[in-house]
Predict the 3D structure of the following.
Amino acid sequence: MNIYKDYIQEIEERKNQGLHPKPIDSAELLSEIIAQIKDLDNEYREDSLKFFIYNTLPGTTSAAGEKAKFLKEIILGQTVVKEITPAFAFELLSHMKGGPSIEVLLDLALGNDTAIAKDAAKVLKTQVFLYEADTDRLVEAFKNNNAVAKEILESYAQAEFFTKLPEVADEIKVVTFIAGEGDISTDLLSPGNQAHSRSDRELHGQCMITPQAQQEIKALQAQHPDKSVMLIAEKGTMGVGSSRMSGVNNVALWTGKQASPYIPFVNIAPIVGGTNGISPIFLTTVDVTGGIGLDLKNWVKKVDANGNVVRNENDEPILEQTYSVETGTVLTINIKEKKLYNGDQELIDISKAFTPQKMEFIKAGGSYAIVFGKKLQTLAAKVLGVDAPLVFAPSKEISIEGQGLTAVEKIFNRNAVGVPAGKVLHAGSDVRVEVNIVGSQDTTGLMTAQELESMAATVISPIVDGAYQSGCHTASVWDKKAQANIPKLMKFMNDFGLITARDPKGVYHSMTDVIHKVLNDITIDEWAIIIGGDSHTRMSKGVAFGADSGTVALALATGEASMPIPESVKVTFKGDMKGYMDFRDVVHATQAQMLHQFGGENVFQGRIIEVHIGTLTADQAFTFTDWTAEMKAKASICISEDDTLIESLEIAKGRIQIMIDKGMDNEKRVLQGLINKADKRIAEIKSAEKPALTPDANAKYYAEVVVDLDQISEPMIADPDVNNVDVSKRYTHDTIRPLSFYGGVKKVDLGFIGSCMVHKGDMKILAQMLKNVEAQNGKVEFNAPLVVAPPTYNIVDELKAEGDWEVLQKYSGFEFDDNAPKGAARTEYENMLYLERPGCNLCMGNQEKAAKGDTVMATSTRLFQGRVVEDSEGKKGESLLSSTPVVVLSTILGRTPTLAEYTTAVDGINLTKFAPSNKSLVM
């Protein structure tokens, strides 16, 4: 009774927050609830029945195990519950999505009671979340001439779990809701500072947009009960910035439909739109939930009589509205015709949103069911010795004779599953690929764990070479929220088979290293495919895709991912980089020059950036590939010379060895296996058996961008442009300005050096600049706080060994202490240097933040409203993004430096240099 009474007390506390009872995932609590159901005189019996039926999480939660076991007792007549008949028990099992429920259904289907076996088989035919242990039982029974097993396998071979689902409606009526103007970050839909609540879906739903917006959505639903609310990014792209399943979950919670009456707060089928469409990662997440994402194109560039784009005084294209989607507009999505209508008026073609594959996701209620269903059909047909009928839409295959392959096309062809030998696929082809490396981060990790439970996965796929669970997004503050969530997450992932930042047994020191940096180190093959639970999963080796927590779970469980082969944009360099410039300036200039070359069109958006870096090792090249998330690219790929790649792999080996030495390897010696694979790859390159990956000379690209280094004459800054009169132009990463724009007078309230965009070289630049300033001025005096968060502990250790950490300690007023980590977020900063714990820190914005209204100069990647800094009542907070030396000098001066001040401060300092490769980087 103690556990149940605690639950009742929690329910009362949640009522004060306007929340329903929290869904049950604990076997202990559900066991007590079951005991109360069995006790006909129990005062809590009626509520216990409701909790059991409607409020228990499915899949592989321990509560699901207890629920399935009790339902089995009822079906077998061992327990009688008048409110739950055997038929209702079977219905409840059918909604439990795998794991213990499948085990129970197989027990019943393969049992001796013919009538029960028939009913169990009927339910099993609708299920797709079966794993080897489940299918092995079916196959074994089939081999022993079990008729029910044969019947189930025949149903699977025919894919009746899909074909017997209701067809998608011919049209859907929607009513529009403008969520905001300009690009809408997933931070608006699921704020980073509320990351701790993401696994509590109802609670987290309260943070979407604003309470006022939530009430407006409810009012629209009341006015239009027969329509779905479509969330829209007016004059922008929906879902930029991060790969948040929680953002889609929130949209579905407020505007979607309940997946099952017996699964609380799991909604599906959200409908979202954007003038410039949906961010690629976000659209994948929408697919996971069987939703719809529309490219509305309701604003277009104005052209004159000659067809030339009309521009304003800032040389920006002027936009014209082609049709209105203001809040409250009723539209019709005609799925049959693949058109969008306002009444009888046809607005646009929306066929891209309703490809055969996307139609399957909508019909099945999400992409997972299709992925698992295809595997199940293939297996059943193979066991039966029959050809699987063509039930699912055939994968789109594009093969162009005589056309070479881009680097990413080569990787996809190498890792493709189910493609006939010798068949070569080009961009646009749909393909299943094996995934080599997977990363889960800590603010989405609990959701990934929930997704794994819901798809009944219990162990990592043997196909995956290595997987890592980070602790970086919650590294800054070891508060009560982190203490409640992180150990639980680390234990689950460690048990599942991942290398974890924190050892559940407490054997090794907790590592809060930035996830992208770790993944960059453990990627030991430039032919690898990497999936990670963060938009900045963009490695300098291999091709990496940021993904939602569900896609990460799918990759962990199956070792596979499905997607079209993306188009690529080739980026090369010419000219010479000036000695006083940092490579971060080249990164920003690439975006600025690309936009200029293509008249404001972002040719990177939704495509792969194939960057011919050549001579930069993995750490430095990562600065470019990491930033491509802000370029709105789907991913990026780095082309390296042989010697450079070997050097990068040797660095990776050394860092993986450090992880091993710290005790982080697991029983399967995954980390040692990565070192062995790296040795093999290095040997292949040295022997010329398999040189470093390069594209073919006759590969075809969507576009080619040539970056002229001679044009980059001063540091470049990405500015959120918070006061732009056009709201849609604020908080994008497309406003890149030279340092001189600020005239040396813009006040800087705080500086931040950290996040995934910096490497050891940046920390050494910081140390050298401090020594320079002291030599020039006699002392180092900060006119604004400088927060420094190294990306990894390895970097801290290397800096200590090389003497640079001692320099940083000398000038710091605070240094992190892992033996006594901060228990509360910092709210005020003094004008001094803070050496913070390795991790994301201010860039994440969920724990530490700058003071409201501050102007922050940061090496970060995030300039979204409210992320690094919130607005004050009288001033908008702004996060300007620049190189390490600009940040350092800005905090020492308390303002932006002039170019003369900057060049003096960096004189003699070893900045990150770059010279284009003088070798051919194509085959």
Notes: The chain has a mean pLDDT of 94. The first helix runs from residue 2 to 15.
